[in-house]
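Batch job 17 of 40 flagged for manual review because the log was empty.
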Amino acid sequence: MPTNLAIDDRLLEEARNLGGHKTKKATVTEALEEYIRHRKQQQILELFGEIEYDPTYDYKKQRNRT
């Protein structure tokens, strides 16, 4: 889908150079993918302390189940 965006040329060029991309499209695509990964990681981090663990759970015992 074609999209027109007003992106700061200096930022785009710096990102392109740092990423070693040949095109602006490749630069923006990777930047968006990295942004999405980062946000998903933040959501996972928010779960820390939210999940209750069973202190009696024996993971070694579960490995040997057949």
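Reviewer: the log was empty due to a logging misconfiguration, but the result itself is present. The chain has a mean pLDDT of 89. Unflagging and moving on to job 18.
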